[in-house]
Each structure stands twice: as C-alpha cells, then as structure tokens.
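Sanity check. The docking grid for guanosine-5'-triphosphate depends on where the pocket ends up, so I'm generating a full predicted complex first rather than guessing from homology. Inputs follow.
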Amino acid sequence: MKLAMIGFGQAGGKIVDRFLEYDERTNSGIVRAAVAVNSAKADLMGLERIPQENRVLIGQARVKGHGVGADNELGAEIAEEDIDEVQNAIDAIPTHEVDAFLVVAGMGGGTGSGGAPVLAKHLKRIYTIPVYGLGVLPGTDEGGIYTLNAARSFQTFVREVDNLLVFDNDSWRQTGESVEGGYEKINEEIVRRFGVLFGAGEVGDGEEVAESVVDSSEIINTLSGGGVSTVGYASEEVELNTGGGLLSRFTGDDAGDDLDAANTTNRITSLVRKAALGRLTLPCEIEGAERALLVLSGPSEYLNRKGIERGRKWLEEETGSMEVRGGDFPREEPEVSAAILLSGVTDVPRIKRLQQVAIEAQDNIEDIQAESEENLEELVEDDEDELEPLF
Ligand SMILES: Nc1nc2c(ncn2[C@@H]2O[C@H](COP(=O)(O)OP(=O)(O)OP(=O)(O)O)[C@@H](O)[C@H]2O)c(=O)[nH]1
Ligand SMILES: [Mg+2]
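Predicted complex below; grid placement will be based on this.
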C-alpha cells in the first residue's frame, strides 16, 4: 500500500529517511511522500533523502532551531502553534494517491513525543484515509524523563491514531555497541519488518500473480479497530531458481515434486512459528490479539497455498482470534520470509510498566504540589512567629 510518511522529531525523521532508502533498494513503492518535522535545524539538515522542501522546522520563535530538550509539553505546544506550516508541506502531497498516513516518532524525546499525537489528531480531522502511528519506545537505560515522556505520549498517541504500531528500542538494543551504530541496525530492522508488511499490498500489475496476494484493504482491515500492534518476522535463505522451478508446480506429480511441495509447506509453517514466537517489535503475549495478518514473501516457487493456510490456522489457534488473514507477496529475492502483524494486542508487559510510571508520576505531581503548599503554609507561619531566617 502507498503511504504518506511523516517523521516527527529526530528518530521519526531518520526512520522515514531510511524507509526511502529501503524503497529505492527493494523497489517496493510504499513511500508515496515523505515529510520530516522537527524543532532542531541540524537534525533536519542531517537527513539524506527526504526532499528539502518537505523538511519543516517548527517552533523557531520559541527554541530558535535548537530542539525542545526532551520537554514534551513544549513539543506539543509548538506543534499546535505551527500546525499550518506542517499542513503546507502536506498540501503538496497527492493525498488521493495515498492509502494511509504513517506518523513516525520516538516517544522518549520532546519534539516527536509531544508533536506526533497533535499532528495525528489534526490529520484525522481533515482526511478520511486512515492515520497510523509508528511509535518507538526508548531504552529503559535512557533515564527517567524519557520513560515519563513515553508513558505520557503513548497514551495520547494511541488515542489519536487509527492504530499504533510499536517498536521497542529496549528489547532490540545490543550491548557493547555505540548508540549511533546500534540505531543504524535497529532502523534497518524497523524498515525491513514494516516494509515487507506494507509492501505486500503493493504488488504491481506486471509482476507475477500470486496464488493469493495480500492487498492493501486486508492490511487496513487488520489495523482497523484501533489499539496497539506488533510485528513478528522470520526468514530463511533459499536458492533463486530461475530455470524450471516455477514450472515444477504445474508439471506432473512425480516423487520429486511431492517432496518439493512438502518441503515448501514445512518451511512456511516453521517460519510462521518462528516469526510469531521470536522477538516481536513490541514483545507481548500473542494470545488475545484481536486480528492478525500473515504475509509470506519470497520467490513464487517457494510459496504455496497449503503452507499459508496451515500457518494461518496455527495463528488462529495461538491467538484465539477469529480474524486471521494471510497471503502471498511474491518477490525475486533469495529468501523466504514470514511477517506477522498482530493487531489489538493487550497482554504487553512493557505497556503495563509504562502505564504504571504515568500513574505514579501523576501521584507524584499531587505530592509535589501538596508539599509545596505545605512549605508555603509553613513559611507563612514561620513568618508570623518571626523566626530568624536560616540562610
Ligand atoms: N530506533 C531509533 N530510535 C531512536 C533514534 N534516535 C533516537 N531514538 C529514540 O527516540 C527517542 C527520542 O529521541 P529524538 O527523536 O532524538 O527526540 P526528538 O523528538 O527530536 O525531541 P527533542 O530532541 O527532545 O527535541 C530517544 O529517546 C531514543 O529512544 C533512531 O535513530 N532510531
Ligand atoms: Mg531532537
């Protein structure tokens, strides 16, 4: 499917930039338009592929191009104040050629975490196409303010979008790597997973006709109903067979072909299990997911209906969902992969902890206010007693 991607804040911009690179490399055609919004001028200048005219600097009057320094309330305020400038960039997008918006942001900082929900709300008021969010959770070692920002932003973002796709940096960081080097790999992981998924609904007319191609309405239906989504992925290298491989599916039923078919089916079923039970973009219990979409991609001679059907059935049993869709995404690449979108997941330990943090912060705010009121009263009383000042 074709997306208009808007990266908000530094992480958001870098990830959208990376999606453009993925699009060029794989010819997937999912990024119909790309916009970056930030309050930090240097971050906007550091982007590689997003067109200059689609880079929007907001909050100039307030922060002079230096970013908001992880102040997510300020991030939200400047987004509201300068929403017209963002809209101007979006006006230049041929939105009639777009299936959905994808607003991408890191939830731990100030600009993206504050601004992305504001933009999502704005877009939903104006357009009828779905507005999805891709929210990146900070590592737990980044510090309290990042966690607190994420806790607050998450609650607002999930409410404003049609579905919030989540990637948790915390479960993907590698030890012993520089932060920047680590992000390079993490961002590649992000674009590959979400790229395969959204690319599935974008099989062109001239390309090989799959047995059951996923189309963009199936992605939209899986994401409809809101909530939080996570993506699982697993792949296996195969040999690209440019000879008679494709034909072998249609030729006689000698023993060799039966063996091939059985191998193909088995490969698919185990890839589906690996994808669902391995590391998800947001780790969670897959049981209880409301909807799911299974996308099997690879050379068409390595895809078959039986494998996908089995994988789909297995997912139905594991999730308990009655709404599991599945299909092919034929691509001439030397690997077969399974990507699984699990939508409306509820049993997510990381989100429960974040909600706890938000509640505690709320309590703390009351404590702090109560404390400062007490102090004030004491000061007044002290004043009345005419005690010697301590300092
Ligand atoms: N996956 C990924 N996460 C990133 C990347 N850069 C930053 N992050 C994460 O995103 C969070 C927010 O950082 P930024 O995007 O730099 O913040 P911002 O939105 O620009 O906001 P301010 O800098 O406070 O104005 C961080 O806490 C990190 O967890 C990146 O390249 N990839
Ligand atoms: Mg920044």
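Relevant for the grid: The radius of gyration is 24 Å.
Also worth noting: The mean pLDDT is 89.
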